[in-house]
Specification:
4-stranded mixed sheet; single chain; 5-stranded antiparallel sheet; 96 residues
Amino acid sequence: MKIHFHLYYATQYGENLFVKTELHRNGNAIQGEHALTYLNDTLWHSSVELDTKPGDVLRYHYEWHDRFGAIRTEGGTREIAPVAGSPLEVYDYWIP
C-alpha cells in the first residue's frame, strides 16, 4: 500500500522533516524513517510504500531535524488501520 504523507509545517533553511513509522503485525513492529520533501513554505510530502496485511496497525509521528543535529519530536502518535488497495492520502498538522 502506498501512503502519501502531507505535513503542514513552516520551516527555515537547513531544517528537515521525517515521518517515523511502526507497522504492527502479529505482535511485531516494523519500523521505518522516511524523509519528507519540501513542497512550499508550509507543506512537506513523503510517499511511503508499505506491505500491509489485514489487521495491521500503522503508528507514526513526525520529527524535525536541523542542520546542527538537533531533533524535535512532535507531541503525539497517530494510528491508521491501513486497507490494501488504493493509495492513502494523509494530511496532518504538527502536534505540539
